[in-house]
Amino acid sequence: MSLLELTLETVEANLALDEALLVEADEGRAGAVLRFWDFPRFAVVLGASRRLAGDVRVDACQEDGVPIVRRSSGGGTVVIGPGALNVTVILPNSAAPGLSAVDIAHRYVLDRIAGALRAFDRAVVVEGSGDLTVSGRKFGGSAQRRLRNWFLVHCTILHAFPLERIGRYLTVPSRQPAYRAGRRHEDFLMNLGLPRTILHSSICSAWSPSSSLSPATDVPHDLLEALLSERFANRSWIERL
What is the mean pLDDT of residues 85-105? Predict the structure, then answer.
């Protein structure tokens, strides 16, 4: 597995890069990747099939100059920005038994991350359809994108995030896991409270205990630009639902 630590200038480009890395792997031109990126400004990221009007307080986003974009993976709509670490894991279905099944692949990735974080006296468990939680409060959300033989799992981990921004930019979701029990954003979400450096090192250790991850150097720039034009920076694609 290669390690890629790269944050591009726009949130659209960062989402397109994840998709480009997955396509490259599925077409046999690249391998497994663990990527970290941090976006320095707030942005709202719609899940692939989420509805803009139903999920987002558009007026507040426009007032604050917060971009609204869409990713190619499923899952719910999230707010990213300072104090949120974005993690992407790209793996082949052959990496472990059963990974051709969506639920098993998702759990495989999240269980590794949760297990690594439990080493720091945090009782992290996986709940719902892919949430990282402590004592029933969510600090990490995830989503999956699959191609023919490879898949990726996105995970956003809140560690020092201004949680009031989430209620400002997002409505309360209509679909909720049972364990949320109807709680408002501010009562349901939390920061994990571990430094970013600790999060990084522990998640790396979940994939390579010997710290032998090789740095990734190849970025598929042409594919990235094509994906930006066709989808991730295309307002008709972003606002299609």
Answer: 97
